[in-house]
Amino acid sequence: MKPDSSSSSLLRPRLRSRQDHSSFSQDWSPFSRQRLSALSSQEDYRSEESEEFGPVFIQEPDDAIFALDSEDKKVMMSCEARGNPAPTYSWLINGTDVDVEADFRYSLIDGNLIINNASEAIDFGKYQCRAENSIGAVLSREALLQFAYLGVFSTRARGGVSVREGQGVVLICTPPPHSPEIIYSWVFNEFPSFVAEDSRRFISQETGNLYISKVQPSDVGSYICLVKNTVTNARVLSPPTPLTLKTDGEKARSEACTHSNVQMPLSSFFSFSPVPTITWRKINGNIPKKARLRKSQAVLEIPNIQLEDSGSYECKAENSRGGTAFRGHLQVYTMPQWISMINDSQLDSGEQLQWECRATGKPRPTYRWLRNGEVEMLNGELIIHRVQQADSGMYQCVAENKYGAIYSSAELKILASAPMFNTNTVTIIATMGKDISLECRPRASPKPRITWKKGERRVQANRRIMLLRNNTLRIVNSSRADEGSYVCRAENQFGSAEMTTTLLVKEAMKVELSPKRVEVTVGESVVLSCKATHDPSLDVNFLWLLNNQPLNAQQDGGHFEYIRTQSSTADLMIRSILLKHAGKYGCRVQTSADTVLAEAELLVRGPPGPPGVVIVEEITDTTATLSWSHGVDNHSPITTYNLQARSPFSLGWQTVKTDPEPVTGDMESAMAVELNPWVEYEFRVVATNSIGTGDPSTPSRAVRTKEAVPSVAPANVSGGNGRRHELVISWEPVSEEFQNGEGFGYIVAFRANGTRGWKEKMVTSADSTTYKYRDETFPPLTPFEVKVGVYNNKGDGPFSKVVTVSGRLSLPHSPSLISVPQSLSPSASLSESNSERPMLFISPQVSYWKDMEQEESGKKKRTVGNETVILLSGLDGNTAYLITVKGFNSIGQGPPSASVRATTKKNRDQPPSNVMWIQEGNNVSLSWDPVKAMENESDVIGYKVLLRQEGRGHSQVMRTPNSAAVLVLPEGGTYIIEVRAVSEGGEGAASSQIRVLTSSVTEVSVLTFSIRKDFFLNFNKSLHFLPNAYLYILIN
């Protein structure tokens, strides 16, 4: 086989792919060919266990590092592949076969290579696994086996380093032999006192050297370099290096200066004094956002390095004495990555194979082609012009550069089989005048030669009979003469096969659907009848459609019913027709010979649809000009339109008067009249036809009518009941709907009977309901004529009718207390009596104070209206009080009643006891012993359960008359619960606090009990819980 890199057309690979998700198709279907997605080839393509296929790696070996000081001296390199037959395995080290039989140190377990007593001198290198079966062989990727070790430092004593104070110094580490990387640190004087890196000290993880800037007396001492292997974690220490300060007259000496090959690029900045400020920049670009500065900005670290991070970087160090800069170029290299890979292919003998693989990488990768593990050619493209059976096997494209290699594998299968048909006999029934296609699609490789015969005679092509390129025999405008048996014969060098097709030609079927067009009204019913005329030897099936979609009678609420009256007739009944039932109905009739569709149109008359968008064209204080567009009339002309409006003051939508009246169906605009000024309205339009009224349009945007002078006067004007020499005038306020604009208020006019001039007063609040006028000159009960008008920013409106109102009055008599218990709770009810109460006696006032205090220090409370009972709350328990009552009317207050002495009962001191609780999830059930009243205590009337979240002051309160309660707590938090008894005397002392924790994790149920000590011995141990439940028992 010779490689060819010519640019001939690329053959479409077939069958399965081992790397990507591409799929391909072809016109010819050779024996056992399939189209499969790429990665599914390891599962879907292997669905038939009997099918043979080449090796496919499931697991390839990975790079490994083996510690030489490991107690287990075995190294295992893993490899596993699938294939049918099952593959066998062999290994290569540095391209040379590993002889497992000859070297006892090697052994194979399945595909895994075991190396006993591994040695760096013999076993270091690159390993590859070869998987092979009868189809072919493939090589795995290369895996590097390294060995980890750490030597010891030279025992030779190290010379001291002397430096002048304030100068910089470098201490050399000189690490021992090691593999792989090591971590450097320094010990100061004694272990484990480590040197901490800061703005003066820097440890290079490249050389291990310690840099100290601006040496201080505290730096004097002994320094030891410590190195740690990153794999074995082994650590070794260097001999100590003394650091001393140079005295006057002594020449500075440093072991670092004796090493001429030591490089100190960035780290040398630490030798500057004063300590410099360090900055970084990228030449011709920006430093990557992911980069970070470490060790006083002396180290620029770029994680997850990428190609775009390449470039020149500059580090600049500056102090008060000057500055310097160092520039370096970062070049990023990558191992190859696939752009396109090869896929498994099946080809007929003699076809052309063209495979191409492409990869990216830096440096640019080179390519190798392997066939069954052996190098076939060096190129990025593989072409075989005429494949033969000998070309079958496993192929691999290898893309590699100095940083690694990647492998793409595929199987090439060359097919060879005699023709075969899925079935040897076929019957086709057609109708006269139709075109007929007789297919011939054998499976064969290579492609067979096809011939057609009718009876004993070979079929010759003519104007009506054609042999297509895909070997299909096509007969145009068929007739009875075309009936008969047609034989397709397929033949290649491996054999032949035949398939017989029997052709029957029948009369064409006719279908009639009646009525063709029908109009009905909503709510009526109709029957569509479908009749087929066909060859009696053929069975027929009916399918009803609505607007080209199959009709499902069961899903439309009983409106449709199928009726089959005869074998060749089917009816469709539509009951209680709705607008949505309008459309094109189809009756599709099918036989084994042909399918015919007949259609009919159903028009449904109904109320109109909603009109189009309503637009407010013009607005005044009482009118709005509206326009809209016609909606669908549903096959019945629109006769009238109804305009409706809605405002914040209306109960829903209300019909408004219009100009003109009525609005006829041919109009698209009208004026709404008699609207209220300065009111925000929305408008909509409703259409009506002879069938009924349709749905309304969508509402218009909200608009406000313009302002106008008020037109509605206040109602129910009255007065009286004021203080002495005071006239009180009251009225019902005018609703905002009728205020007609901003700046609304009232004009109050009044005059004494028998006088001519009116006094007018302005009340600027629109919500006002009273006005008080005081005049010492008029006597009580003087009658006045009163009227109230309205105004706004647009002007004055009308006045109400004139009414007569009288002034008032004299002071009330003293009331008397008739019911004060001698012992009352801190919230006590009192009653009073005044049999001689004068007219308009309102709001008596109760005064109360402690027996040992002055009346002036007491409190006062008014009753509501003419009530003669009042509740005094907030009193102290077990305390004597004195109580009096004064009467009030519009003139003023009367004298107080005689004082009465009463003593409150004692407050509750005893808290609820034996509080028990059960928590299940976020539900907490509480119970406690009932609290009994002691002597001179108010009876308990209920309990308060207080709940608050820990850390917050606000509490939620639940009241209950019983000695039990159930709380539902929010998820996720800690809650405090306590219980207090409540009586007429107030709240008692709180119970001991209960602390409850709720969780937001719904998968775990927590059930918690609180149990009294006296109950513990009788506790039932037979408790059953759901999975993931916990039980907490607290003993009080």
From TrEMBL:
Pfam families named among the record's database cross-references: fn3, I-set, Ig_3
InterPro entries: FN3_dom, FN3_sf, Ig-like_dom, Ig-like_dom_sf, Ig-like_fold, Ig_I-set, Ig_sub, Ig_sub2
Disordered: annotated segments: 1-29, 692-719
Keyword Lipoprotein found: yes
Main location: membrane
Residues annotated as domain Ig-like: 55-140, 163-238, 239-331, 336-413, 419-506, 509-603
Database matches in CDD domains: FN3
Keywords for the protein's UniProt record, in alphabetical order: Cell adhesion, Cell membrane, Disulfide bond, Glycoprotein, GPI-anchor, Immunoglobulin domain, Lipoprotein, Membrane, Repeat, Signal
Keyword Cell membrane annotated: yes
SUPFAM superfamilies on file: Fibronectin type III, Immunoglobulin
Location in or out of the cell: Cell membrane
PROSITE patterns: FN3 (PS50853), IG_LIKE (PS50835)
Topology in membrane: Lipid-anchor; GPI-anchor
GO biological process, one term: brain development
Molecular function per GO: cell-cell adhesion mediator activity
Protein's UniProt name: Contactin-5
Organism the protein comes from: Pygocentrus nattereri (Red-bellied piranha)
Encoding gene (name): CNTN5
